[in-house]
Amino acid sequence: LVQLVESGGGSVQLGGSLTLTCVGNDFGFPYYIIYWLRQAPGKGLEWVSDISAEGSTDYTDSVKGRFTTSRDNAKRTAYLQMTSLRLADTGVYYCALDISGKRRGPGTQVSVSA
């Protein structure tokens, strides 16, 4: 069973950049779609992006042109590069094996301040 761990979160100023990393612990990692989800303070989980096993990507409208997801299957790692960060991007970011987030990592906090 693949388990995921995120890292790379932190505090950043408006307009700044961060790159999140998601590492899987199982040889099955390369075969899964990897979802990036986030949870803003007081709100539910929101789908942000996903990347297929072959590398096809999709993004929610609010992050298109600012976020880029990629993966390195040999390293069992996925990445979420975030640029031009906005206050609304603040939240806990998760990588997950399903869009509902039932199989997700512990998360990493991203805080954007003015």
Q: Flag low-confidence runs.
A: none
Total helical segments: 0
Describe the global form.
globular
**Strand composition percent:** over 45%
The total of beta strands comes to 10
What radius of gyration results from the CA coordinates? 13 Å
Q: Considering DSSP H and I runs of 4 or more, what fraction of the residues is helical?
A: under 10%
Q: Strands of the biggest beta sheet: in what spatial order?
A: 2-10-9-4-5-6
Strand-pairing-aware structural class: mainly beta
Straight-line distance between termini:
40 Å
Oligomer category: single chain
For the sheet with most strands, the description reads: 6 strands, mixed
- Helix/strand order: EEEEEEEEEE
Mean pLDDT across the residues is 96
Kindly describe this structure.
The chain has 114 residues and is mostly beta strands. Helix content is 0%, strand content 48%. It has strands at 4-7, 10-13, 18-24, 34-39, 45-51, 57-59, 67-72, 77-82, 91-96, 108-113. The strands form 2 sheets. Strands 2-10-9-4-5-6 form a 6-stranded mixed β-sheet, with no helix packed on it. The chain has a 4-stranded antiparallel β-sheet with strand order 1-3-8-7, with no helix packed on it. It is globular, with a radius of gyration of 13 Å.
